Please model this.
Amino acid sequence: MKIYLKCIVLGISALFLSCNNANNEKEIDDETENVSEETSLNENFSDMSIYNLPSKWTTQDGNEIKLGDLQGKVLVMVMIYTSCQAACPRLVADMRNIEKQIPNNKKADVRYVFVSIDPNTDTPERLKTFAKENKMEDDKWIFLRGTVDDTREFAAVLAVNYKQISPMDFSHSNIISVFNQKGELFHQQEGLGIDNKETVKAIESLATENKKK
Amino acid sequence: MVKVGKGEYIPLYGRDSSKIKVASFLLDTVPVTKTDFLKFISNNPKWQKKNIKGIFADKHYLKDWKNKLYSGEANQPVTNISWFAAKAYCECQDKRLPTLDEWEYAAMADKTKADARKKKDYNQFILDWYERPKKSSQIVGSTFKNYWGVYDLHGLVWEWTADFNSVLISSESRNGGKNNNLFCSAAAVGATDLMNYAAFMRYAFRSSLKGNYNINNLGFRCAKDLKKK
Model:
């Protein structure tokens, strides 16, 4: 019986390479409840950290990153698309406004991340141009493009809803999210052009002072 | 899996209320069962109840399971499953979750017609089911086989779709308070007939979900693109 089961399992493993790795076979073999071994699969990101997302993203400079690469910074994130005429320019303005209000000695600890909900249109080149146009060219401004599926997944994490309503346009939730240095959601601001005070306060409370001055 | 043939339909909340084209695709004939899911988590420990990250599933994940031991029947649909887990399961089979449009399109069929939405007994069946208290004992394949050869789209459990988070009933209605009550009743009144009412229930339900939610009567099935010849 056990051999029979093993055959099935191995058969499955061979078929579904994408989600099975060497560790799994071991797990099946002895059926032990070895927690420490299993948790090591999940890396050491905390329970609610967005760094757990396995997705890869391309920046406006063409670099490939995982969200985990941003670990250690306060992240202010928003989902936009560059051909957007209505809400996005205001969201971009909101992000700029927020950045302005962060005290100089804390600025270095914060990254502002724009994730495109229109990855088919928003190539890295296009994101780069968009960054230039908006004078968001130094390191703290990050523009990301992923696959359609990974973008959908990221939106699910942020609880941002969006839908393509015509070839050119999307309707979407207007949400700015603040994550702490461990990648855990700390604060969300919903709506356009609203008072940023709470968001700024949230970022200030998280960001550490730059000792160099 | 069976092939669901291409076609078009007007969804409840469409792109400018125009017709949506749905390309042919493959769809699981029944929802994913508890046995199916057990196999998956045995191979993929990070999706086991004791290892799951909170960002991917809240504490209700596989609520009635004792880690790798489910309660109930092997052939019951797996529920209390988050969108992330459902998505991971399908990807593991080299499949994907159906899109909202694909799901709604396949679910328009009754036993004999691809689009039965204007038939009274079709709508009555769905609404009767929505009214019934949850029957957890039902096994997959126990409802009718539809025009495409797909079972259980209505009458068993609600199902995740890939883009469940594409539903925007009002532009931003989650602030609570003033809008919420208004739009609920307003939309129901605005629904022109029973057909829209049933669809409205599904859209409203989807819009209330978050990706890491786990719900008693919410399961899933997988879809797949047809191979290009």
User: Anything to note?
Assistant: The interface with chain B takes residues 9, 12-13, 15-16, 18-20, 23-24, 27-28, 33, 35, 38-39, 41-42, 45, 47-50, 52-53, 149, 152-153, 155-157, 159-166, 171-174, 190-191 of chain A (CB under 8 Å).
